[in-house]
Design brief:
16% strand; globular; 8 strands; alpha/beta; 247 residues; single chain
Length: 247
């Protein structure tokens, strides 16, 4: 591990120790979302992220439908908006990362278990009524920075049921997207080390686009519309999408 990475780890540890007591006290009066946003924003800055926002993020009960390249996406989005994230259920069992995700209000779902689709949609629907944006990484995994995998419709059902807007969100690292993208087959520890060692700055643009009314559009149409908006913002040629999308 380089000196740069060690300094970043120590700085983030000090930041966490400073923020935790304030977050705990704030929980007596509110949900502490402002401290989560503050913490993630500073973590992003320490990691070299320099974020530009295009468009107007919808506030309150809204589902952000985003592409996903790297775990850097989380401090980029979470440091800019008071958002919660839909995360894989196994992350909840990770020691430090799972604990931080729970503090941040993450909604954990078992994405690979089709038998639990109903329960997953219910959990997201409840989260969408609690006053904070919820982020769905709609590809179901991380991309390669070159292509965009069709968005999975299954969790968009929650937006229908909650009657909330779905706002397409493109996370754009520009010409460095493939360099930032999580390499296929790389474990979390290896990728964490790679990002900690990365020199600054890492410039990322968040494109917040026109929202879709989730109360009026079915989940597969939402998936298509959000996909087209995100691929257009990223300048990725949209492939021919099948009429019948798999959940």
């Amino acid at each position: 591990m380089t000196i740069r990475a060690v300094v970043r780890v120590l700085a983030m540890a000090m930041l966490l120790l400073m923020c935790l007591p304030i977050w705990a006290i704030s929980r007596l009066f509110c949900d502490g979302a402002f401290m989560v946003r503050f913490f993630l924003g500073r973590v992003g800055w320490l990691l070299g992220l320099r974020v530009t926002v295009r468009g107007q993020p919808v506030a309150g009960n809204v589902l952000y439908a985003s592409n996903h390249l790297s775990w850097l996406d989380i401090p980029a989005i979470g440091g800019t908006t008071p958002a919660r994230f839909i995360a894989k259920s196994e992350i909840a069992g990770w020691s430090v990362i799972g604990w931080l995700a729970r503090i941040g209000g993450s909604v954990f779902v078992a994405r690979q278990k089709r038998s639990e689709t109903r329960e997953q949609a219910n959990a997201v629907s409840v989260a969408l009524t609690e006053g904070r944006p919820v982020v769905l990484f709609a590809e179901g995994g991380t991309g390669d920075g070159v292509t965009l995998t069709p968005f999975r419709p299954s969790l968009f059902a929650a937006a229908n049921e909650a009657g909330v807007k779905v706002q397409p969100l493109a996370v754009d690292y520009g010409s460095r997207a493939s360099e930032i993208a999580w390499p296929t087959g790389a474990g979390f520890a290896r990728e964490l080390k790679r990002m900690l060692n990365r020199p600054a700055p890492v410039r990322v643009t968040l494109h917040f686009m026109a929202p879709i009314n989730g109360a009026e559009v079915d989940r597969k149409s939402i998936a298509r519309e959000a996909y087209r908006a995100v691929s257009g913002a990223l300048g990725i040629a949209e492939p021919a999408m099948p009429e019948k999308l798999a959940d």
